[in-house]
Amino acid sequence: AVHPYAARSGLSKEELYLENIVVCNSYAIPAKAAEMQNQISQHILPESTYVCENLQVLLTLVRAGYGCSVLPQMNFINSDICSVPLKNSEPLSYGVFYKKSSQSTLLKKFIAIVTNTSYH
Prior knowledge:
The structure is a single chain. By secondary structure, the protein is an alpha+beta fold. Helix content is 25%, strand content 7%. The chain contains three helices and two strands. Helix 1 links the parallel strand 1 (21-24) and strand 2. The protein is elongated.
């Protein structure tokens, strides 16, 4: 069954208070997203909160219909999970560290993609 929120163009965090939530304590989840998961879970009964330690487990629980979660948009999450933007959420920033003297063509292409610049 398709979740009623699946067709929405945006949700407020308060709307998630009515849902089961999956919270993940993993370094793979950016701190801002984990903070939002925890804020929302404080408004939800403990029996409606699923806590896991691994992003893959979180995705499996969401796919199985145990609940919703808050994550940054990730291209590797395929179409069996619906992604709806959270209204009034600030953009997540990220950084890339690399060895400047590296001659790797693949690394240069990757940096061009994540920084949205042209590759030379």
